[in-house]
Design a protein that fits this description.
single chain; 382 residues; alpha/beta; two-stranded parallel sheet; 7 helices; 20 strands; UPF0046_metallophosphoest; hydrolase activity; Metallo-depent_PP-like; Calcineurin-like phosphoesterase domain-containing protein; Calcineurin-like_PHP
Length: 382
């Protein structure tokens, strides 16, 4: 049961002068951004996964994920002829949250030969984030109705009939279970959230939070200086931390494939603590295009409470960079039995394209999933 994921990120630094201002956004609720200098063309990212059921053998297929900023084609890469179990979009369905970009992304997803397409938004998808609406005390408040209308249209677009017909499922924040056609059960934790860069707020950055806010770890399980925040569904409790096969986030955790071209680690420390606690088989993300690559982390046996803070090597026995076996235009990886036993986690940052051309190969990762039969098909089977 192969699985694949693709993402794409803009080729520019996330600094305030590169982002549209609050006033430009509010004056133009459809985010055409005609008065804003656009950044260079975004970089697409890609990751392919492959999985096999642990209870029975199934024909291998693939699952792909995307982060495409409103582009309607993966040219020169095409997945139209690749049989997939599912497709995963890791966020940034648009460049600035316009409906036209969403329609382009839907066209791209339709072109992928997968019966199931799993989608999360990212920091560019402003119209999907209700907290990014203008505040009532601003002088631009008359635009509030138009902005609310766009938010409603965006939500309906990704959850309505037009999106459901090609198999798109807009993932809920937190835990999700998806039954694949071969009856394998994919257990996912999904989050579109990324920390705000300095000087940026929710008028310019969707699904953002302050770096000291902890959306993922319940009180008493996070790092000492972070403040528990966010709705209950974002928390990975002690009771549920073993339920994650794949963690899908828009941005990376701290220390894992999150280094910018300037050498700065920009991933989220609170997300890293959550990953360290739940030890998923695979954690896939994009957002930092210079971090393209894959690495396998082997965890140490830890008993009792975790330390008050996390250093880069805390809880880690070994880290190995993984290049994969090259063939058929992909880098092929396998999640071992150790990964299935929560002793290892494969981290993949799948940044494929440069500014104008495909520069890097996508990843194909084979892994085992827990399986189950549908009730009516499972009677009498052992």
């Amino acid at each position: 049961m192969p699985i694949s994921i693709l993402t794409s990120e803009p080729q520019f630094k996330y600094q305030p002068h590169n982002l549209p201002s609050r006033r430009n956004h509010l004056q133009n609720p459809l985010f055409h951004m005609s008065q804003v200098k656009r950044p260079p063309r975004p970089q697409r990212r890609g990751l392919f996964f492959s999985s096999t059921s642990s209870q029975w053998q199934q024909q291998q297929r693939s699952l792909s994920g995307l982060d495409t900023h409103g582009y309607s084609s993966l040219t020169p890469t095409s997945l139209s002829s690749v049989p997939l179990d599912a497709a995963i979009h890791c966020g940034d369905l648009s460049q600035y949250g316009s409906l036209s970009d969403y329609k382009n992304t839907l066209e791209l997803l339709r072109s992928i030969a997968a019966p199931i397409k799993l989608v999360i938004p990212g920091n560019h998808d402003l119209s999907l984030n209700s907290s990014g609406l203008p505040r009532s005390d601003t002088r631009d408040a008359p635009d509030l109705t138009e902005r609310q209308s766009l938010h409603t249209q965006a939500q309906r677009f990704w959850t309505g009939t037009e999106a459901r017909e090609p198999g798109i499922r807009f993932l809920s924040l937190g835990f999700n279970e998806v039954e694949l056609e071969n009856k394998g059960l994919l257990k996912i934790y999904a989050t579109p959230y990324t920390p705000f860069p300095p000087g940026v707020d929710d008028s310019e950055w969707a699904f953002g939070y302050k770096s000291n806010e902890d959306l993922y770890n319940p009180l008493g399980t996070g790092i000492w200086y972070s403040i528990p925040s966010g709705p209950p569904e974002t928390k990975i409790s002690e009771e549920r931390k073993g339920e994650v096969d794949i963690l899908i986030s828009h941005g990376p955790p701290r220390y894992r494939l999150d280094r910018t071209e300037e050498g700065e680690n920009v991933g989220c420390k609170n997300l890293w603590r959550a990953v360290r606690r739940c030890k998923p088989k695979v954690h896939c993300f994009g957002h930092v295009h210079a971090g393209y690559g894959a690495e396998l982390v082997r965890w140490t046996e830890e008993n009792g409470d975790l330390p008050k803070d996390d250093d880069m090597d805390d809880g880690i026995e070994e880290v190995r960079n993984i290049n994969g076996d090259i063939g058929d235009g992909v880098r092929r990886l396998v999640v071992s039995e150790e990964g299935s036993g929560r002793k290892e986690t494969l981290f993949v940052n799948a940044a494929l394209l440069g500014q104008e051309m495909l520069e890097k190969m996508p990843w194909l990762v084979e892994m085992e999933l827990s399986g189950r039969f549908r009730e009516e098909e499972g009677r009498g089977k052992s």
